[in-house]
Amino acid sequence: EDKVVQSPLSLVVHEGDTVTLNCSYEVTNFRSLLWYKQEKKAPTFLFMLTSSGIEKKSGRLSSILDKKELSSILNITATQTGDSAIYLCAVGRGGSEKLVFGKGTKLTVNP
Amino acid sequence: DAGVIQSPRHEVTEMGQEVTLRCKPISGHDYLFWYRQTMMRGLELLIYFNNNVPIDDSGMPEDRFSAKMPNASFSTLKIQPSEPRDSAVYFCASSHRGRGVLRLKHSGNTIYFGEGSWLTVV
Which residue of A has its CA nearest to B57? Predict the structure, then answer.
């Protein structure tokens, strides 16, 4: 059965800190790994990763995939209170449009 | 562009009642997904459609749940009869894969979520 595990489950930091969120997966015929940010409503798309070792960056957020280790990390530098959210990792496989989600990491950034 | 639109946004209903959740996907998207989110289980895929045809309903919990997609711009998820354990946020999402050469540009599985229907069954 496909599995996505995120760690830590929750994290509390101060503004300005740098955080690293982890996602590991077990999936047959891996195709892509996606990161979403969920505030109070719908998850919003952050990154899609398909190739190992290539960093994707958007402002203070960056992510990289390691297919050998079956994992990905999401980094947020110089955190702000607006980064407080649940960060979800999801994995898709070839031959299906189904995404399997991890339970998320709840990040709280205090002023 | 309008995103995925869901209704109702919130519903509180009594056990045993029928609940119908509605979804309008992003125009032009050929895949539609229904997900359920709870604290205990996170986000779980219930069913997804491609070009209005159900492709994988293995996540539908039991016969009390049914989903339809009568046309490309509308889908419903129905629970009958509802039970307290059905209380959750139900998300609809859609995506576009394209055909032929265009499909190569849509590698991966990016999907776009609606704002969810928050269901409480008492």
Answer: A98
